[in-house]
Amino acid sequence: MTTTPTVPATPPRRVPRRTALLLAGVLAIPLGGGVAAPAAARVDAGNSPGVTCTGAPDGFASVNALGQNGTTGGAGGPTVTVTTAAQLASAAGQAGPLIIRVSGRIQVSDMITVVANKSIIGVGTTAEITGGGLQLGSTTRPGNNVIIRNIRFTDAEDDSISVTNKAHHVWIDHNDLSDGYDGLLDIKRESDFVTVSWNRFHQHSKASLVGHSDNYPADRGKLRVTYHHNFFDGTDQRHPRVRFAEPVHIYNNYYRNNALYGIASTEDAGLMVEGNYFENVAHPIHVGYADSAPGRVVERNNLYVNSGTPETAGTVVEPRTYYPYTVDSPASVPATVTAGVGVGRVCP
To answer: Could you say which protein family the record assigns here (predicted)?
Structure first.
């Protein structure tokens, strides 16, 4: 197998944002009702041949819990199309279910608050939120039952997407995230039942954090998150870095040229890591990191190509106690993930 050279010992300097790859495809907005279990995977004719995807969330976002029947977003509400930051902020903060179509490039400042029962869906292949990001909920207005799909996020002043303030049932799918200031996608402050699928992370250091800080044990027993079929493409760290959560299920993701590390489990978090492909990752899995106490990791059936040895420890709650799933062969992951991630590939 031909591999690219080993990653440098120190992380590369941040470089200017480059134009993200535009992927051909079609867009359809999901309008279905409650989700009791994952939708069956299928091949969508609008995508590249052989790319399997689903039109409804799977993983933790599909679980019936906390009074929510899976994740349905704005289904059942009206549809609006937004082209400016003011329109997006107004729609995202509106009470009740709403499907928000993001058309073209929208320049925003800081974070736009998204409240409950919203689907925020990019139109075609050119939807972009730049300069700021989306924050799910506030301390007084929850961001539960939210879907974010098919959007390019660039140059955020803070996080590109922040799932916070006890938001639950969130599906983040088929987005392209790059070149922000802090985290591209952070999940914290007692949020729960989240699925992160088919996203590309690139041109950045801190990809995705789960758990607010070492001094926020209120996250214990929350933060149940599924990561599957994401492409961590040259990002340095946090793919994810996890505190307190259990289980965090990480499967069939493609890790390439991650200079600091792939995954880190800290502060007694429990991570199930399976069927992933690590390429040129010197430290694919850490147990404990920096000043954070060790967590627990069970790893199985991963491939480590020109990569280091993973660290593991302890036992972890099986994700199958929450939802059914199928793990693809890890050897197929680079081709499947690179063909399917990002914008322009949203299945109906």
So the answer is: Belongs to the polysaccharide lyase 1 family.
Pairing relation of β-strands 161-163 and 185-187? Answer: parallel
222-261 pLDDT, tens digit each: 999 999 999 999 999 999 999 999 999 999 999 999 999 9
Q: Catalytic site residues?
A: 238
Predicted confidence (pLDDT) per residue in 205-216, tens digit: 999 999 999 999
47 located within any domain: no
Q: What is the CA radius of gyration of the chain?
A: 18
Residues 6+ apart with CB under 8 A from 223: 187, 188, 190, 191, 192, 194, 210, 211, 242, 244, 245, 248
Q: Are strands 208-210 and 185-187 parallel, antiparallel or unpaired?
A: parallel
pTM for this prediction: 0.86
Answer whether residue 14 is part of any domain: no
The count of structural domains within the chain is 1
Residue ranges making up the domain that contains 115: 52-340
Q: What is d(CA 336, CA 253) in angstroms, rounded to the nearest whole number? A: 10
Query: Tokens in use for 198?
Result: 């088919």
**Edge-to-edge strand list for the sheet holding 146-149:** 79-82, 98-102, 118-122, 146-149, 168-173, 192-197, 225-228, 248-251, 270-274, 296-300
> Is residue 50 pLDDT above 90, yes or no?
no
Domain CATH number, residue 225: 2.160.20.10
Residue 255 lies in a domain: yes
92 in Cβ contact with 120 (< 8 Å):
yes
- 48: region left, alpha or beta (phi > 0 left; psi from -120 to 50 alpha): beta
What is the average pLDDT value for the chain, to the nearest integer?
A: 87
Q: What is the pLDDT of residues 64-89, one digit of tens each?
A: 999 999 999 999 999 999 999 999 99
